Amino acid sequence: MWQVLFQGVVTGLLYGIAGLGLVFIFRATGVVNFGQGYMLTLALFGMSTVILAGGPFPLALLVAVAIAAAIGLATNESLKLIKDKSELSMVMATLAIGLVIKGVVSMVWGSQTRAIELPFPDGGQQFGPVFVEWSQLITLGLGLLIAASAFAVINFTRAGLGMRAVFENEGNARLLGVPVRRLRMLAWAIGSAYAIFAAVLVVPQTYLNEASLVTFALVSFAAITIGGLSNMFGTLVGGILVGVVLNLVALYLSSSLAHTATLVLIVVVLFLRPQGLLSARRIVKV
Predict the structure, then answer these.
(1) Segments of the chain scoring below 50 in pLDDT
(2) Largest CA distance in the chain
(3) Calpha distance 280→137 (Å, rounded)
(4) Whole-number pLDDT of residue 137
C-alpha cells in the first residue's frame, strides 16, 4: 500500500504542476484553457521527433517548450478576435483551438504510440516498505523545484505581482500602469511551459499517443477544481489527492474505475465547497 501511495504522490504532483499552468493563465486572463491536452500532445510529438532524429535531449525539451509557448501566445491572440467575451465563449474557443491542433497531430503523426525515455539512471533504493526508483526520486525533486519556481514567480517577480493585481481588479491595475496585454501574453507562455514540464516528466509512464496527454490534462483540471481554480497551493494539494485516489482505486477496486472515482471526488468537493478545498470565497461589493 505504501508503494502505491508514494507513486500516487509523485504522479499527483505532476497533475498539480500541469494545473499550475492553467492557474497562471486563469489568474491573468480569466480563461480556462480546455485545449491544453492537445497542445501538450503536439509539443511532445515535436520533442519526440527531435529525439528520434538524433537531437540531444536538452534541444528536444527546448523545442517542446517553444511549441507550447507559441501555441499559448497564438491562443491569446485568437481569443482577442472573439466579440462575445462570456466565459462559455472563451471555453469553447480554447476547446476549438485544441481540436484544430488535434487535427494537425492526426495528419502528421497519425495514431502512432511513442515512448520517450528520460536521461535518468536505472535502479533505486529501499526506504522502509517503499522501493523508490531513482527516476521517481528525480521526478519528485524536479517537480518540487518546478512548483517552488511557480510560487516564486507569482509572489516575488514584477510580472507575478502584476498578474495578481490583474486578477484582483483589472480596472485598478490598468490605472496603476500595469501592462495588462503584455502580462496576458506572458501568462500564456509561462503557463504553457509549466504544463510541458509536467507532461515531459509523466510521459514515460503513460507513453505518447493522441489521447494520453489529453487524459493527463483532464485529470489536471480535476486538480484545480478540487484545490481551487485560482489557488496555486490548493492546485498542488488537489493534484496529489487525485493521484493518490487514482492509485488506491486501481489497487483495491479496478483501474477502469479510477477516473470514475476522480469524477465522484470532484462532485463531492463541488457540493461541499464549490470554490475548492483551499480557496476562500470572493466577495464582490456592488
Answers:
(1) 283-286
(2) 60
(3) 33
(4) 93
